[in-house]
Write a structure and sequence with these properties.
Elements lengths: L1 E2 L7 H8 L5 E4 L8 E5 L2 E5 L12 E4 L4 E3 H13 L8 E4 L3 E3 L1 H13 L11 H9 L12 H20 L3 H22 L2 E2 L1 H10 L4 E4 L24 H5 L12 E5 L2 E3 L11 H11 L11 E3 L1 E2 H11 L3 E5 L9 E10 L2 E3 L6 H4 L3 E8 L16 H14 L3 E5 L7 E3 L1
Parallel strand pairs: 1-11, 2-5, 2-10, 5-7, 6-8, 7-9, 11-15, 14-16, 15-19
Antiparallel strand pairs: 3-4, 12-13, 16-17, 16-18, 19-20
């Protein structure tokens, strides 16, 4: 299950629905920069590191080796779920090969953003610095926590590398940093109790006839290699990373569901070709409650971008499409879809690699009639108004991917399986 826009596609709900029919749910990349919002009845849960499947009783949830784990935030989330009545006993495992995110990574993230020539719009959760240490072969993995002496040495070495920049922020920051560092080391003992070989668990489940759901965070356009670089996250968000980040071979994956919102949104900086004007942006933001689950920042909104959807289908090898928030469009009399881009060199139908060019393209729109009636009561595709079905058919055609799921509200019951 992978996001096919700039994240915030409603993946949490799709995972929550699909989790009912699987044995394992595995998060394979990213960290606490993700925010998956799930509604169970009238109760809202916002999950950042623990997979959304945890809200289904008896489902085991794993964090794969591709995840960078913020220990303090992880256990805040863990304890909050426990205090809200979610049974967690034996239900969460963390890869021994996953890297640990330290308190100073958050500070370095803030400094890097302040000093950057091009502001990324990072969440400030320390993700970039944690992955930097990982690829420079200086990071600390969960397996290192088995030896407390070695773990402390690795933490101190990492902190020392960051100390000069941290000191430039003043004594108060240094004091908080020291306190958070000790809390991280103290909580590391709890993390060790959850450590496991996620790849082996997954393969054992598959060989035993079980089903596994691999859960991605962020979206295709934020992928480090395939997204709108440099305005991207620090991990690979596309489907291929599901194998690498969970510890299995790619031939074990037989289904790839891509999630798209019925329109387009983006948090952070970087181009959004189909962006609305100010008035329409505010209207759609209100209709869709478009504020980041992790940072609370308002999202930029725009029409559905079929150029991006088609590109996402290709780079992810999608076998099916899930469209979310269709109900947000219920009051609009006309709805547009960007089918191609006009550039100084001519019309293009493929998503360009040059991010700077993407900021200057003019979307070419196809306008379809709205339906101007509520869809949140629909439970089959036949219950939807004819114009809504026409709109979905056109998305399916332009993305060249069969439609599998449609979300028409926040509740579990408000999902249409196609």
């Amino acid at each position: 299950m992978v996001g096919c826009q700039w994240g915030d596609e409603g993946k949490g709900k799709i995972v929550d629905v699909l989790a009912e029919d699987v044995n394992l749910v595995v998060r394979y990349q990213g960290g606490a920069n993700a925010g998956h919002t799930v509604h169970v009845g009238d109760t809202e849960f916002v999950l950042h590191q623990i997979p959304s499947g945890i809200l289904h009783p008896e489902k085991r949830c794993l964090l794969g080796n591709g995840v960078v784990i913020d220990i303090l935030e992880f256990f805040k989330e863990y304890d909050d779920l426990y205090n809200r009545g979610i049974d967690l006993d034996g239900r969460i495992g963390v890869s021994e090969r996953a890297h640990v995110l330290m308190p100073h990574h958050l500070i370095l993230d803030r400094i890097s953003e302040d000093e950057a020539k091009y502001k990324i719009g990072t969440t400030g959760r320390g993700i970039g610095p944690a992955y930097q240490e990982k690829v420079s072969r200086m990071g600390m993995r969960v397996a290192d926590l088995y030896n407390s002496k070695r773990a402390r040495s690795l933490v101190e070495e990492s902190a020392q590398r960051a100390q000069e920049k941290i000191a430039s922020l003043g004594a108060d920051v240094e004091k908080q940093f020291d306190s958070d560092l000790e809390s991280t080391l103290a909580n590391s003992k709890r993390l060790v109790e959850l450590a496991t070989d996620t790849g082996l668990e997954i393969i054992d489940a598959i060989r035993g006839g079980g089903r596994v759901l691999l859960e991605g965070a962020q979206g295709t356009a934020l992928d480090l290699d395939h997204g709108t670089y440099p305005f991207v996250t620090s991990s690979n968000t596309t489907a291929a990373a599901a194998a690498t980040g969970s510890g299995i071979g790619p031939t074990e994956i037989d289904t790839v569901i891509g999630v798209v919102k019925a329109y387009t949104t983006r948090v952070g900086n970087g181009p959004l070709p189909t962006a609305f004007d100010a008035a329409m942006n505010e209207k759609m933001r209100t209709l869709g409650n478009e504020f980041g689950a992790t940072t609370g920042r308002p999202r930029r909104c725009g029409w559905f971008d079929a150029v991006l959807a088609r590109y996402s289908a290709r780079v992810n090898g999608l076998t099916g499409l899930a469209v979310t928030k269709l109900d947000v469009l219920d009051t609009l009399s006309d709805i547009s879809i960007a089918t191609s881009y006009r550039t100084p060199e001519g019309i293009i139908e493929e998503f360009p690699a040059n991010t700077w060019d993407l900021g200057d393209v003019e979307p070419i729109y196809e306008t379809l009639p709205g339906w101007c009636e509520p869809t949140n009561g629909a439970r089959t595709i036949g219950d939807l108004p004819a114009p809504a079905r026409q709109y979905l058919d056109r998305i399916e055609e332009l993305a060249d991917t069969p439609l599998r799921m449609i979300s028409v509200g926040t509740r579990r019951s408000q999902i249409i399986m196609v």
